[in-house]
Fold:
Amino acid sequence: MNIGKILEYMMANTRTLKRVAYAVLALTVVIDFFIERHHHVFFWDDIPGFSAVYGFISCVLIVVISKALGHFWLERSEEYYND
Structure:
């Protein structure tokens, strides 16, 4: 099975795509427990999985805040150009 068929199947089945994405996220956190830290500057550099969780939460916050700004600041009513 080639990669195109796999991607086509996953795009057609969003449930499968979400499961794969969650599995990759979980694998990233699990792998972080086994990586040895050689150079750490801040105390949170020693917390396993912190970077993955911090990045995920930051990404979700960027999307939520952007959608809120777009809704309350940029969005116009349907009759805006008809007046």
